[in-house]
Amino acid sequence: MKKIISLNVNGLRSAILKGFTAWIKENDFDIICLQEIKMDSSYADPDFFINQGYYSYWHCATKKGYSGVMILSKEKINNIFIGTGNPEYDQEGRVIRADIGDWSIINAYFPSGSSGEERHDFKMKFIQDFYPWIQELLYIRKKIILVGDYNIVHQAIDIHNPERKDNPSGYRPEERAWLNAWFSELFDDSFRILYPDKQEFSWWSYRAGSYQKNKGWRIDYQSISKPFSACVVNYKHHYDIRFSDHCPIEGNYNLI
């Protein structure tokens, strides 16, 4: 069984100061996928977490202190692929893929559109381009787990106030329609396979005590390609672990 963790750390150095390295050393995770590491390529050492028992694989943004994703693995991975081949997105450090035997794990950090309409438009362009990219990859790699911060709420159950009328990025009809297609045509939601009616959140605003009141959104996912979905064994939101405004999400899979 493989234990896979995904977490938006909102700055890796900040998470380390809050005890991240001790936490991963204490737990027996096989693969850890981090988003929004906010570290440039000068830090991209494959042995960065070697004392915790992990090899590190990085995709840093060109801009310092911004975005970036990485994969930590207990086992050395020989086949690592950086980005999607589109420089517009790859300069922001948003996607990294690892091929492990006959299956692949992809760690993705979808753009946030919360800063304004220009970035929301960029986000929509990203997801519209990402869909055919992953479709094409699925022809080659049938077994894919795609984890990360999607920055999109899927269903009303995935947000604490679904009746809200202010149309925030992350909960707009066009985004949710895209994610509907994603989970209808290409992938299954690992969490929903096991818990179709359970309300859990993965992100809480720092404002107004949202975490303490559990006023959150579920925007972090582990998607599994449909022919592969019987491999899901367990799923957990680590609600009490607070390295950032997101909580770690853990999927357990029957994999070699």
Automatic annotation (TrEMBL):
Q: Which family does it belong to?
A: Belongs to the DNA repair enzymes AP/ExoA family.
Q: How is the cofactor bound?
A: Probably binds two magnesium or manganese ions per subunit.
Q: Does the keyword Transferase apply?
A: no
| The protein's name in its UniProt record | Exodeoxyribonuclease III
Cofactor annotation: Mg(2+); Mn(2+)
Query: Under which EC number(s) is this enzyme classified?
Result: 3.1.11.2
Active-site residues (renumbered): 109, 149 (proton donor/acceptor), 246 (proton acceptor)
- Residues annotated as binding Mg(2+): 8, 36, 149, 151, 245-246
Residues carrying the site annotation Interaction with DNA substrate: 246
List residue numbers at the site (Transition state stabilizer). Answer: 151
Is the keyword Iron in the record? no
GO terms assigned for molecular function: DNA binding; DNA-(apurinic or apyrimidinic site) endonuclease activity; double-stranded DNA 3'-5' DNA exonuclease activity; metal ion binding; phosphoric diester hydrolase activity
What are its GO biological-process terms? base-excision repair
Q: Which organism is it from?
A: Candidatus Defluviibacterium haderslevense
Q: What are the UniProt keywords, alphabetically? A: Hydrolase, Magnesium, Manganese, Metal-binding
Q: Which superkingdom heads the taxonomic lineage of this protein's source?
A: Bacteria
Q: Which residues form the Endonuclease/exonuclease/phosphatase domain?
A: 6-246
InterPro entries xrefs: AP_endonuc_1 (IPR004808), AP_endonuclease_F1_BS (IPR020847), Endo/exonu/phosph_ase_sf (IPR036691), Endo/exonuclease/phosphatase (IPR005135)
